[in-house]
Design a protein that fits this description.
Strand order of the largest sheet: 4-6-7-9-8
Bound molecules: adenosine-5'-diphosphate
Largest sheet: 5 strands, mixed
Order of helices and strands: EEHHEHEEHEEHHEE
Shape: elongated
Oligomer: single chain
Low-confidence stretches: none
Length: about 290
């Protein structure tokens, strides 16, 4: 009963709640609490599992890095070990005087010489790849005249071109100096000009050094087998070799262009290719002009 201040009954409030409905409300709240608790436990378990996986991945990553390092160390050690017997063979080869040899012997010695040179450059490439992968390659940058290096490279590859009846030409022009490591630039050019000779069955290879804007470009042009647009896109990848009828008899490792691209970009340069399959290719190396 609701009474006023004088005690008179003014109205009534009817309560229609039994203990059963109180129990129901309580039970519902307990169920909700359990659901929330289960949810929290599930989320915590999920986080723990993920955390364990992250730890697993970290351990796996460290192990993989160790194995990778071991592989690099082994390859590098094996390549260095190969260098020693190679230099002994080279040394003895140079001591053989050709006057006393028959033509057959001379031919044999020349073949051994070529094989030794090939093996030597393969060993050099392997050592370079390991160095580049580990970021250990250093460039001894100097102000240089590109024409001097190109002339040296053209001279050294002249006999290789002649063996294939190709003409290899370089016309000297006066251009600005660039900053580069002369030894590494020479290595890059030997790869590019060497490839031009290797992948050109007939015709010619020409090298041009030009200056445009603030850049010096070296263009190596051949009239060889050419490269399709699709192959050009992946050309500078490690171990990439284009497999086709024209290349099946040509040996190589697919490392030369990758190494060349690393060298060029390490010296602030750019490398690109323009080619038409069946017609020939242009490889272009460009570097900023050295500012005084
Ligand atoms: P390798 O010559 O040892 O195979 P490279 O990395 O020097 O390796 O070259 C990768 C591939 O690019 C070669 O296998 C060849 O198919 C292609 N290539 C390179 N230079 C030329 C070129 N001047 N003309 C046609 N194809 C070329």
């Amino acid at each position: 009963a609701l009474t006023d201040t004088l005690g008179e009954v003014r109205g009534f409030v009817f309560l229609d709640t039994s203990m059963a409905s109180v129990d129901n409300v309580a039970a519902r709240n307990v169920r909700n609490a359990y659901a929330i608790l289960l949810g929290i436990i599930f989320v915590i378990a999920l986080l723990l599992v993920r955390q364990a996986k992250v730890v697993d991945y970290a351990v796996l990553y460290r192990k993989l890095k160790d194995v990778d390092q071991m592989k690099d160390d082994f390859v590098s050690m094996a390549a260095h070990e190969l260098r020693t017997p190679l230099s002994v063979i080279k040394g003895y080869l140079s001591m053989i005087s050709p006057e006393r040899l028959t033509d057959t012997d001379k031919e044999g010695i020349s073949r051994v010489n070529i094989s030794v040179e090939n093996l030597n450059s393969l060993v050099g490439d392997i050592l370079d790849v390991v160095k580049m992968d580990q970021g250990r390659i250093r460039f001894d940058m100097k102000e240089i005249d590109v024409s001097d290096i190109v002339a040296e490279v053209a001279d050294s590859l002249q006999s290789l071109a002649k063996e294939k009846n190709l003409t290899l030409s370089f016309v000297r022009s006066s251009i600005s100096h660039i900053y580069a490591d002369p030894v590494r630039l020479k290595q890059a050019l030997i790869n590019i000009v060497g490839n031009a000779i290797k992948y050109t069955p007939q015709g010619n290879v020409s090298v041009m050094a030009t200056e445009e804007g603030e850049r010096v470009s070296i263009r190596v042009r051949d009239t060889g087998i050419g490269i399709s647009a699709e192959d050009q896109r992946k050309l500078f990848g490690k171990f990439l070799r284009i497999r086709s009828k024209e290349t099946e008899d040509i040996r190589g490792t697919g490392l030369g262009l990758w190494i060349t691209a690393q060298i060029v970009s390490g010296m602030n340069g750019k490398i690109s290719v323009e080619s038409i399959k069946g017609k020939g290719s242009d490889f272009i190396l460009s570097f900023p002009v050295a500012t005084p």
